[in-house]
Amino acid sequence: MTKMNMVQALNSALMLEMESNKDVVVLGEDVGVDGGVFRVTEGLQSKYGKQRVIDTPLAESGIIGTSIGMAIYGLKPVAEVQFSGFIYPAFNQIVSHAARIRNRTRGKYASGIVVRTPCSGGVKALEHHSESTEAFFIHTPGLKVVMPASPYDAKGLLAAAIRDPDPVIFFEPLKLYRAYKEEVPEEAYTIPLGKAKVVQEGSDVTLIAWGSMVKTCQEALQLNAQNEKYSIELIDLRTLSPLDWPAVHKSVQKTGRCVIVQEAPKTLGLGAEIAARLAEEDLLSLKSPIVRVTGFDTMMPYFKLENYYIPSPERVLHGVKKAMQF
Amino acid sequence: MPQEVYSNFSIRKLSILDKDGKADEKLLPKLSPAQLKEIYTHMVLARTLDEKILKLQRQGRIGTYSPGLGQEAIPIGSAYATQKQDWSVQSFREHGMMIVRGVPLLNIMLYFGGDERNAKYPVDNILPNSVPVGSQTLHAAGIAMGIQYKQKDAVAIAYFGDGGTSEGDFHEALNFAGTLNLPCVFICQNNQWAISVPRKSQTHAETIAQKAIAYGIEGIQVDGNDVLAVYAATQEALARARTGKGPTLIECVTYRMGDHTTADDATRYRSPEEVQYWRERDPLLRMQKYLLAQGMLSPQLDEQIKNESTAKVEAAVLQYEQFPAPSVDDIFDYHYKQTPADLEAQKKELHAFLDTIKPLGNEGEK
Ligand SMILES: Cc1ncc(C[n+]2csc(CCOP(=O)(O)OP(=O)(O)O)c2C)c(N)n1
Ligand SMILES: [Mg+2]
């Protein structure tokens, strides 16, 4: 065990997976010599060479399109899109091809690419550098979507994504990259995709979050511990698609209340899907209406106003109170 | 049928002022001493602004910044050739163009200060910064389609970097411009780097200018650190576009003297020797030397220009820092011509929440 921040944990996963599987290649803008603009791929090129760690031309459609080809041929590309706000040139390749090739060939070919991309706000970045775009990909059949919330999970989930036979969009909340360190094993390990984590157990209300909102919710738990002292169960989804529905279901069955926290715009976000699912299957267990604490149906504002857009611990607690005081 | 050469192509290369500020008299564009001094003054102002914003960023007074250090000749020389009715479609390193076309320094600073009110420029026909690399080239082509349709005497200029030429949108823009014979000028600021990736990793072609050939349009490479060459090439391209002769791709060869942005550390991927080579080719010093040698500039006047630039920049910084904080309503109020009821409701909800807590302690105001 050693203390790692999320950047180091992700780097460690890449190092180990490249070591154990010679077919893993890393490609993207600035991933080689520079080690990625966030240094997640630092040291990979000097260790594994320019053929396995490729500084590509500045072309996201090219990066993902060639990754799909490599994957079909049998390699394991781990592509980086420098910021999720710049994934759109590659959207066509992801949606029209990566997500579909297995189904279209009845399993003869597959595109088990991993697309790593930083997401979400909170660091006063320039526009297009703070987006939460997971819903587009969750909405696309054939893709898996992952968003870790801690260094430990980041390493295990990235390793699992690389070993997964299907295309995985791997979102890295950039606010968490260097937010804190925690104990992370130096050796390789995986955390299964599709499994949520109960961060804290509780009995009054279920709080569901992912990505950097997990940390925000943990801060809300601290505020709660000083004041209201509700018994809150916090669930970190970790994988957004496929959703760990049994984990959500089980918790809400127990608490009878649910607050969903998402940084992305409100309409048709993952929170909407969870709320719909609860209405379908758990309506009679609910003691209060489901509450969503989300970004707004607007552009991510430039950074002067971003703290009003991104759910804060206070806003999360406000939502919890709404559910509790119904 | 024997094999034969289908055609041969060539690419022009233009340079007027050499690195020591000596001009090729035959190629000098027709500019009066007053105009030449004005161009130089713009360059000094752009440089002064850049250096100031870099300082502010280090002090935490402004956000991430993409400096134009060492590239001033391109946005300034090209913008100086435009007329009011022409359109400038920028990337994110064309502050010099905004200076020439009359965008207040305050607006430039507000953008990098994370303030959405930056881009309501008091002057027309300039699109805001475009961060998604390469994407804006198509907008220039589209504006040119509008100009063509309305039969106006105007041209659309697109700016982008060497990295931008790798994006699919760049290809589509040049292809549209070529096939539709659009009044459009594509200006590539080839500053040798796209963050850490060198120019030769963007294209295996020897020049970017030669890409024009494949689209059947005019292409030229110019010394991008020579403001007179940039001006002359743009002038020629604008004249061609205005007379229905179609688009031009101008590759301006320059160098990004600074880091990519304030979030970057260029020493990780390039050598001090390379930087030194280009420092000796500084576009500002070159123009200064030329003007001094021509007697159009004296050390005293030079000093005065620099002092005036510093005063302008300091005044803008004051304006920037005293600019009233934006309202949270600004998050919601500009997405649609008429804000939908649902969105109004979300705004109300935010206000209701904010009424329950103390201020968040950031710049926003209710
Ligand atoms: C579509 C897209 N991908 C990635 C980025 C991140 N990014 C910003 S600038 C840049 C390099 C741009 O290089 P170039 O086009 O040469 O312009 P320069 O920065 O040198 O002026 C990159 C990769 C982006 N802004 N947009
Ligand atoms: Mg460049």
Explain this structure to me?
- The complex is a heterodimer of chains A (326) and B (366).
- Chain A has 326 residues and is an alpha/beta fold.
- Helix content of chain A is 36%, strand content 18%.
- Chain A has twelve helices and 14 strands.
- The N and C termini of chain A lie far apart (45 Å).
- The longest helix of chain B has 26 residues, at 33-58.
- Chain B has helices spanning 33-58, 73-80, 95-101, 105-112, 137-149, 168-179, 211-215, 227-242, 272-279, 283-294, 299-322, 341-356, and strands spanning 12-14, 87-89, 156-161, 184-190, 193-194, 197-198, 218-223, 248-253.
- In chain B, helix 6 links the parallel strand 3 and strand 4.
- Classes of the chains: A alpha/beta (326), B alpha/beta (366).
- Chains A and B meet through helix 3, helix 11 and helix 12 of A and helix 12 of B.
What's the number of structural domains of chain B? 2
Q: Please, what is the CATH homologous superfamily of the largest domain in chain B?
A: Thiamin diphosphate (ThDP)-binding fold, Pyr/PP domains
How many domains of chain A? The number is: 2
H/I helix tally of chain A: 12
The beta-strand count of chain A equals 14
Rg over alpha carbons of chain A: 19 Å
Give me the secondary-structure category of chain A.
alpha/beta
Largest interface, with Cβ-Cβ < 8 Å?
A-B, 42 and 49 residues
Tell me the total number of β-strands of chain B.
Answer: 8
In the CATH hierarchy, the architecture of the largest domain in chain A is: 3-Layer(aba) Sandwich
Proportion of helical residues of chain A: 25-40%
Fraction of helical residues of chain B: 40-55%
SSE-based structural type of chain B: alpha/beta
Briefly, what CATH class of the largest domain in chain B? Alpha Beta
Largest sheet, strands/sense/barrel of chain A:
7 strands, mixed
CATH class of the largest domain in chain A: Alpha Beta
The averaged pLDDT of chain B comes out at 96
Q: What's the end-to-end separation of chain B, in Å?
A: 78 Å
The CATH superfamily of the largest domain in chain A is: Thiamin diphosphate (ThDP)-binding fold, Pyr/PP domains
Overall morphology of chain A: globular
β content of chain A, as a range? 15-25%
